[in-house]
Amino acid sequence: MSDIEPTEGPVAPHRVIGTPPAAPPMVPAQVAEGEVLPGHIPADPEFTEHAKNAERVVAALFILAFIAGCGFIAAYVGIQVHSVDQTLRSNLALGTSLSVTLLALAAGSLIWVRHVMPDVEMEEERHDLQSTAAERAAFQEYAVEAGRASQVGKRPLLRRTLLLATAPLAIAPVVLLRDMGPLPGTSLRQTAWSPGRRLLVYGTNQPLTPAEFTSPGSMITVVPEGYQDDLDALAKAAVILIKFAPGQLDGFPTRTDGSTVLGTPNWIVDNMVAYSKICTHLGCPVALYEATTHHILCPCHQSTFNAAVGAAVIFGPAARPLPQLPITTDAAGYLVAKSDFNEPVGPSFWERG
Amino acid sequence: MTSTVPKPVSGVGGFLDDRFHGARGMRVFMRKIFPDHWSFMLGEIALWSFVILLLTGTFLALFFVPSAAPVIYHGSYSKLDGAEMSQAYQSVLNISFDVRGGLLIRQIHHWAADMFMVAIIAHMLRVFFTGAYRKPREINWLIGVVIFTMGLLEGLFGYSLPDDQLSGAGLRITEGVIQGIPIIGTYGAYFLFGGPYPGTSIIPRMYILHVLVIPGLILGLITAHLFIMVHQKHTQMPGLGNTEKNVRGQPFFPYFIAKGQAWFFFIFGALVLLSTFAQINPIWLYGPYTPVAISSASQPDFYMGILEGSLRMMPAWETNFLGHTISWSVLIPALVPLGIIFTGMAMWPFFEQWATGDRSWHNINDRPRNAPIRTATGMAAVTFYGVLWAEGANDVLSNNLQIPLYTITWISRFLVFLGPAIAFMATRRICIALQRKDAQELAHGYESGIIRQLPTGEFIEVHQPVSEENAAVLAANKPLPALPPAGTEDENGVPAPLGTGVLGKARAYANRGFAESVPPETNGHDDHGSNGHGSNGHAAVTAGHSPEELEP
């Protein structure tokens, strides 16, 4: 590495990254007619021929903007919507004409300011932001004086009764919010399932017999009969029904005490297990099922549950297995719930216990 | 100057001046100087995006029905014929397929919302890395943090309003998070949703927040932000002739106003172009919301990605405390990462003042390299945010990179801690190295790329002195003096501000970090002093060094 050379011979371009190119002179450029005083803007740009050319370009762009703007109105009048294809056409025509209008206006404005207006760089002084000591003192003097005149400091009785008087008023807006919703009570612990309520296949709303659900390795969504269109009920009561091949559920774990509640074998009907579809993490529907591994995956945050072992958590942020719905068949052979879930479904909450 | 004053200026101006005493103020305002730098346009993108949001949002409000009442659809989108949906969803279908220009405006509104958030983030990064938040601009920085927070909420409510399947998933997660808050969670959820989830109250409630309360707050905050900026005058980048006591650039009228107009049209045009050719939020493909269904790869808008990633990353932690459930796997990801980022941003200017003891005004921005600790902290925060954000798309990453999903989550669980630490250390070293390079370049010139053969046969690269303009930039590194050690007094008997307690020791530690610098006076030889150059008095640019003086 060599040291400094004087600027003889070829000079390589050099610019420090993040800085503007070499600054123009601080004094405004001179105009042809005469001197421009410092701090004043010259009337015309330095290169009149260049400005003249730029003017033509700007005018052309503005005419283009005008034509495209007319095109926008024509497209609005001429192209009807009311179908996917027509909407696509309308969107293309309106969007293209509007973008051309706006971008032509943008380019025209920019060329105008950069090539038609005289190039100047001006300077302005920054003044101290803080007031002078005298101004501050005058302010403080008046503030203290006025404060004394208000008698707030001197009369604690007034001060305290005023605070007392406004306290209920301050709380009132919070009180007014009380009727925004009912108290939760125990409603988070119950769902629409009850003993004998039939399982309807979600979508077709038909009841189901074990003989009708014959494909092992598949999962369907079922909802409680009578609530198939009730979103509030479905937000808690949606259930997935998984059909296993014979023998796959051997050794299905029994209910254990403690924090982890696993499945119960006598709630299984004909190799079918029913779990809550509402993820125990944040309530998304656990909609993805991988038949070979028996994994149920929540697409929101990828909590993964093993359907073959009582929907125990394998991965992800969910802390608890999906609650199992006790199912059986009724006299007519349809799948029904034995009872409601025996634990709250969905995300955790403080009162859950 | 000497020409006659035209009628509009004398007539209308006179009319207004008679009533408002405006002539003096208007002249000052019209002649107000705005410094020029590309990065000063980032905040303007956010401003113009907000204006476009107000315009397009007003149009959408003419047609949107904020109601969750169920209806059976028989409209132009035949694939959903006969489907049960909310009035809100139906009205968005109508905006898309039955209102001319409705789809375009809807897409502009959505793209502008994303642009607004991108621009705010870019603008905040610019302000942070250049130290533009320093005294006297701390209040404006805090206003910016609040606008950012409000923007997140506004966006969440906005994309939830159409009541489609995708946004419903976001709302369900919001409900789950609120429900998970200890003690008041279930009450909060029931009050917000007017009873059990989803209910019918949330859409009109989000609507009034989305179209009035939050935009009103943002508008007020933006107004304050701009007024403060104008009052305090904009910062400028270091450069020849730029001082702490001046502003250099072009005046508001006609230059800045014309440039602002051009920029507005550019941003508007770009958003319309995007909305014409890049589909966004096709709610008709997602279908109406039902809590029973969901699609795979459900992803929120990008600015919510950090929350999504935090939730995905979290291991399943839950405890039972005296018969009450505390769901750490909800609380920690929902509150901690954004809490760290927002609290950190709000406190940083005051932390820096405390650590450096620097209470002076700053109108010249720092080059990021000249404030290594700040830049390193910023890069650590960017890495922290980036890891969480990328984890929010772990399923997409897994699919595209063919890496198992759980592997990505495990990597990110470590990376979220390691990444910021590595970024901090690396950035700090890079900053110091760049400072050293600057000092060297200032003293010895820059590498010209010209190779010359000396009479001895040796080849050297010719160094040439930096230009006056560049020298002014390179010389802008003004390191802050380190605080005197605790317990000492200066010559006037003023005791050092550092305490001797734990806090004082922490402050001294932070102060040492902030004071680390390679100022130009060292000529870039701070760590090897025995090279023949004194640390001072070395002529900045000298000619004719003999080859023996070449550096190793």
Number of helical runs of chain B?
18
In CATH terms, the superfamily of the largest domain in chain A is: Rieske [2Fe-2S] iron-sulphur domain
pLDDT averaged over residues of chain B: 90
Number of strands of chain A: 11
String of helices and strands of chain B = HHEHEEHHHHHHEHHHEEHHHHEEHH
Instruction: Estimate the global geometry of chain A from the Cα principal axes.
Output: flat
What is the straight-line distance between the termini of chain B? 61 Å
Percent of residues in helices of chain B: 55-70%
Please provide a written account of the structure.
The complex is a heterodimer of chains A (353) and B (552). Helix content of chain A is 31%, strand content 12%. Chain A is built from five helices and eleven strands. In chain A, helix 1 packs antiparallel against helix 2. By secondary structure, chain B is mostly helical. Chain B contains 18 helices and eight strands. Strand 1 of chain A pairs antiparallel with strand 4 of chain B, so a sheet runs across the interface.
